[in-house]
Amino acid sequence: MFTNQMRITGFASGLDTTSMIRDLMTAERAPLDKLFQQKEWLQWQRDAYRDVNLEIATFRNKADKLRFSSGFNGFSASSSDTSRALVAAQSNAVAGSYNLTINSLAEVAKIKTVNAIIKSDGTAAQATDKILAAGQTASFTIESLNGQASITITEDDTYSSLASKISSATDATTGISLGVRASFDATTSRFVLSSKEMGGNQKIVLTDTSAAGSTNVAGLITNGGSAAQSSGTATVAANVTGTYGEIVFDGTLIQNLKSNKVSVYGVDLTLLKADPVNTTTISVNSDTESIFANIKDFVESYNSLIDSFNTKIKEPKDRDYRPLTDAQREELSEKEAEKWDEKAKQGLLYNDQILRETLTKLRGSMYTPVAGIPNGQLRMLSELGIKSPYMSLDGKLEIDEAKLREAIANKPDEIEALFTSEDGIASRVYEEVNKAIDKLNKKAGGPQTSPNLDSSALGKSIAGIGQQMISWEDKLARIEERYWKQFTAMETALSKMNEQSNYITGMIG
Description:
Number of helices: 12
Domain Flagellar hook-associated protein 2 C-terminal: 246-499
Largest sheet: 5 strands, antiparallel
Subunit structure: Homopentamer.
Oligomer: single chain
Structural class: alpha+beta
Subcellular location: Secreted; Bacterial flagellum
Strand content: 15-25%
Strand order of the largest sheet: 1-15-3-11-12
Radius of gyration: 41 Å
Low-confidence stretches: none
GO cellular component, one term: extracellular region
Domain Flagellar hook-associated protein 2 N-terminal: 13-107
Order of helices and strands: HHEEEEEEHEEEHEEEEEEHHHHEEHHHH
Shape: flat
């Protein structure tokens, strides 16, 4: 608080007024220092909860890899020529070598203007140029597998807007989209039209329906060059169809493909180039190591989380060490302050309910038999050689690697069901972890939550203490000003008394 009042510091009394007021204010600041320490502790605790949030999120990522069948694909595939085909093995693939011949690729029905479109002034057309002269109109029909539509061009239409009309065209009867893409390329001054789907049944037919003497826009789209006049009779300007893909895989002819991505015998093929003459060799090999690595990574991440939680829950708070105030920190060296902070931060999550409940739920998820799996099949992690050591108290797991590898090699489908089914290990662990993260977010906010947007329980408590501290700062400023007024008044009174005493002494003397 600013004041214009002049302060007199012991001139008449001889007292060290400044030191006395400082000592008095130290006592007065005790409630504020306590609030500061409470706020500091809550901020440390919030950070500790957010660190736990990150730890759990890391473990969740490990569980997520095992929630789906893709995490249990025990095979890998390779192509002898990746310029012709890319391959990937599914979990039901059969190891071996297969021959692939690509007779043809699936293609869309496509129209590309043969020559650049030239305007009446002899220059190449641009996307924003008008197609027709003022007062003119033209029309054509466009037909696809999905139906037929009539396109009308007015004097306001540009090459770009015509492309948009074609792309948005719908069948006149059903209202279904024709499924034709269209664009005008300003660099080449050409249209490109294509069906959205591939296959020999796809088609695009352009028929000029303009009145005699009008511009044959259908012909212009097809052939380019200078605009020709319509004869006034419906004339087909273009009639194109798509192409079916055709391959021979391991001696089996596969025809009428409407996509260049196809799955055969558990192998996903991405066809890139037709080559009826040459053969590509597809190799499918057993790859159980990736499954083993994913499961081991999951268990090790679980053990790391258990270790971390147990340490935090069991570490008690040392009540002899409270957060340092600024004044206290100034009295210590940097190393002393660091050691003090280390002690003061102990027990931030001692016996925390969220952590304890999460530990209990996770242990249950890991140890409980999976429901819905028939008797005689793998239903528990222990049957894979994953279990807690005898008399273990911390709940961590150990892996019998030989037993796990044997199970992966001999019972891959049962292991997949153990983790990925509705009540599977990975599925229920993922669910419990999400619940824990939600609780932590409500308690302390997410790891990246800004203080201004923190609506968590701890965030509200910290903000509330901050407001109390502001009020105390104002109150202490008033108290200090009051002390100064009191001491100044005392000094003024003593000064006057001394003057009177000196005057009387002078009169007597």
